Amino acid sequence: MGMLVLNLNRLMSLPRDRQRRRWQIRARCRRSLVTSRGKRKGSPCQQDGDGISRAGKTMRSSIPDLPEEILFHIHSLMPMREAARAACASRAFLHSWRCHPNLIFNKDTIGLKINGRGENFHHKIGRILRKHSGIGLKTFSLDYSYMCGFDGARYFDSWLQIALKPGIEKLTLWLPTTKKIYNFPCSLLSDGVRNSLQYLKLHNVALHPTVELCPLRGLTSLHLSDVRITWDELECLLCNSLALEQLELECCAEIIYLKIPCSLQRLSSLSVFSCYRLQVIESKAPNLSSLCLTGHRLNFSHVETLQVKKLAMYYPNFIGDARGKLPSSMPNLETLVINSQSEVVDAPMLPTKFLYLKHLTIRCLSHICCINLFLRIHN
Predict the structure, then answer these.
(1) For the purposes of burial, counting CB atoms within 10 Å of the CB of 308, is it exposed (0-12), middle (13-18) or buried (19 or more)?
(2) How would you write the chain as a 3-class SS string?
(3) Which of 60-69, 71-80, 212-221, 345-354 has the highest mean pLDDT?
(4) What distance in Å separates the CA atoms of residue 254 and residue 93, rounded to the nearest whole number?
(5) If you average pLDDT over every residue of the chain, what do you get?
(6) Least confident window among 38-42, 161-165, 187-191, 232-236
């Protein structure tokens, strides 16, 4: 009986012992923290002899004693807001912030409120960029789409001077509609920038490249939306961008004729949205596999379509043409998306078929027409 009581007392004392050990550990942590803070402030004995080196070691103990390359890599993986906060809290991260690879400015990363003033937005971006050297920058994105009517063009040149350094890979400049359109400074595209830039996305700017400035040797993706650029200027840009893989044009009102040279061996995707003055598309790109066209009906009979596997068409009265012409002109088609309105022509029964078609999407006002076409394509 006595042994049973003794064992019970031991079991009951275990939680108290664990709690006591936790208190002792916390007390030691508090004492060490107070001691380290006192050393950071510096005592008289630390100012003599080797005390300076001991104080330096104490200062560096605020972050792990890791190689600079690892700290820079850790900092580069952080989202921009978190990386900026870390730079404010640590000198080591403040040093790496000057080479942070991604600067993405929008209302979320800057923290602009719905009723916030545009000037505050400009001041925040200016302060951030002034602390960045531009060296090591891979991605620069500026989204002003939610600040309609606000003109910040006087800031853009100075910001792009910092961002457009050799090594930049992605550049996005999305500006709102204003009375005075911003003229993109092609003069900032130095040799180093033209060699490293891979992704370029511009909205509501004027782009006037010249023969001397336009060769973008590393460019793989080009997206132009509401960009004022003539066909001659675009042709100059395309002919000197031999690595181009994706081309997207949207609402580019000054382009009437689009000619893609055979030198674009890597071009695989072409998208043209609402370029209402565009009349003819000619393409000799041998590896074009994805084609997306919207707006009014275009003449693309001069397009090399044998390699096209994905086609998306957004035109009225196109269903009949799709059934009658596409199987012979695009025999390797695998994905077909058609948006058609006011369809009045019933698709005829023809001997040609889509032999490799796997995915079919049709949207039109008449559901009966959709069902009939679907059955006829697959039979």
Answers:
(1) buried
(2) CHHHHHHHHHHHHHHHHHHHHHHHHHHHHHHHHHHHHHHHHCCHHHHCCCHHHHHHHHHHCCCCCCCHHHHHHHHHCCCHHHHHHHHHHCHHHHHHHCCCCEEEECHHHHCCCCCCCHHHHHHHHHHHHHCCCCCCCCEEEEECCCCCCCCCHHHHHHHHHHHCCCCCCEEEEECCCCCCCEECCHHHCCHHHHHHCCEEEEECEECCCCCCCCCCCCCCEEEEECCECCHHHHHHHHHCCCCCCEEEEECCCCCCEEEECCCCCCCCEEEEECCCCCCEEEECCCCCCEEEEECCCCEEEEECCCCCCEEEEECCCCHHHHHHHHHHHCCCCCEEEEECCCCCCCCCCCCCCCCCCCEEEEECCCHHHHHHHHHHHHC
(3) 212-221
(4) 47
(5) 75
(6) 38-42
What global pTM score does this model have? 0.73
Structure tokens at 247: 């081309």
Under the banding of pLDDT at 50, 70 and 90, the label for residue 59 is very low
| CA gap 220, 133 in Å, rounded | 26
Q: In what order do the strands lie in the sheet with 280-283?
A: 257-260, 280-283, 299-303
